[in-house]
Amino acid sequence: MAENNPPNPTPPHEETYSSPLTPEPELPVTQKTELTDEPSQQPETVTDTKGNPSQEEDVVAAEDSTEPSKEEQKEPNQNKIPQNLGSFKEESNRVTDLSESERTSLQQFKTLLTDSLKDDQQVSIYGVPLLEDERTDTILLKFLRARDFKPKESHTMLKNTLQWRKSFNIDALLDEDLGDDLDKVVFMHGFSREGHPVCYNVYGEFQNKELYEKTFGSEEKRERFLRWRVQFLEKSIRKLDFSPGGVNTLFQVNDLKNSPGPAKKELRVATKMALELLQDNYPEFVAKQVFINVPWWYLAFYTILNPFLTQRTKSKFVFAGTSKSPDTLFKYITPEQVPVQYGGLSVDFCDCNPDFSINDPTTEIPVKPSTKQTVEIAIYEKCIIVWELRVVGWEVSYSAEFKPDDKDAYGVIIQKATKMTPTDEPVVSNSFKVAELGKLFLTVDNPTVKKKRLLYRFKIKPYSD
User: Fold this and answer.
1) Exposure winner among 203, 388, 398, 465, fewest CB in 10 A?
2) Which residue ranges have biased composition labelled Acidic residues (predicted)?
3) Any idea which of 48-62, 73-87, 277-291 has the lowest mean pLDDT?
């Protein structure tokens, strides 16, 4: 499994084309931030003044155009998915950052809580002992925000949650063995750009009839599913940092691809049960809810769920159809943190990919319709350079070439121009032993009318004979 360390809260690239590595002079490679961005190659060969094929390309700074492609402009405006209701910005949990009225509400809440506890009674929630240290402020602020900073209502909610946790026997649930049947349905993987642990919910797994029946086939099975879901969440949030300024919320990705439709009554009932339970007893634990691969029928399902959601909860929602799902994820999660099946580069650290991990940054480059994009990497000493590259959905040609600095030396075609289709492997990995100084050129030719996104990263290994 890849080492899963949270990234620096500041994204690794301040600009789209900045290098994932910023080498000091003594390092063996540098990468130009200027990249070729020119019309896709035509059948006729471009030649120089002597009639020879031209080896030079105009180099310009590529720009990320936000204008829709011609194909996107032609798409009919139907079956539109729900739009997110405003932008949600997570508030600070530092008492010094609160307004005067918010600090007053927090102090009143503390007083209510203190008065309600018996002498020497110790109460913990989410693994945090209440009223013992500053982490209590973070916990209480979650309940206050869920009740619009009304101390009495917040205290009632907290009391109800503590009572529910006791009746649900949360402490014993943590050690209960509920099996691993749902490991592919809900799993943690990587971190968002702001350092939130990312939780993936893959509803399409329930197309498996055997798994569906085993999970939702009876009321008893649905209750077991609910216990499993609470156990998973409880274990996940106990790894969060409840100290002031710490990351104490999750980033949720909900994959609706091949999800059973609303006709599945058992799933609908279980989802409603889980939603109510989690909203009542785990307030403000989700920083963002991103729904990807949203199908047309979700409009109806969302309408059913809508009355049960608070306005604050709905403000955290982001929706994306299938074609926009990778780009939507990349807005909030860097590609090296996104699993391969969702358009990123992250896979488990294993023998099949020993060179890169979830912590190796990726560079993202837009490739405009009918253009070619070339990445140039300068190499200053003998080494072995390894890289991996992908274009989500492919439909492009990819080539790799090494050109020595010595004008009398021959270039090396590492990968001849090859058409890549959506059915090809999602990620291409290559390596090259550099015995002389020169430059590595990675070229992607996009002949389509759709804007593409090129992802790549590289690293250097010591040279060996």
Assistant:
1) 465
2) 55-66
3) 48-62
Q: Are strands 128-129 and 317-319 parallel, antiparallel or unpaired?
A: unpaired
pLDDT in tens, 308-339: 777 777 888 899 999 999 999 999 999 999 99
268: left (phi over 0), alpha (psi -120 to 50) or beta: alpha
Helix (H) or strand (E) holding 253: strand 250-255
Which among 345, 350, 310 has a CA at the least distance from the CA of 330? 345
| Mean local confidence (pLDDT), 118-127 | 87
Residue 347 confidence (pLDDT):
83
pLDDT at 54 over 50: no
How far apart CA 1 and CA 362 sit, in angstroms, is 19
Domains, the chain, in order of start with CATH, read: 29-77+351-461 (2.60.120.680), 95-170 (1.10.8), 182-342 (3.40.525.10)
Task: Report residue 392 as tokens.
Answer: 């989500």
| Residue 334 to residue 215: CA distance in whole angstroms | 33
DSSP state letters, 435-446: -SSEEEEEEEEE
Q: 3-class SS at 252? A: strand
Which residues are CB-contacts of 307 (< 8 A; sequence separation ≥ 6)?
Answer: none
Using CA atoms, how far residue 29 sits from 21, 61, 412, 430, in Å, is: 9, 20, 18, 16
**pLDDT tens column, 233-278:** 999 999 999 999 999 999 999 999 998 876 788 888 888 888 889 9
- Tokens for 158? 């907290």
Of 444, 450, 460, nearest to 375 by C-alpha is 444
Strand partners, 415: 400
3-state secondary structure of 94: coil
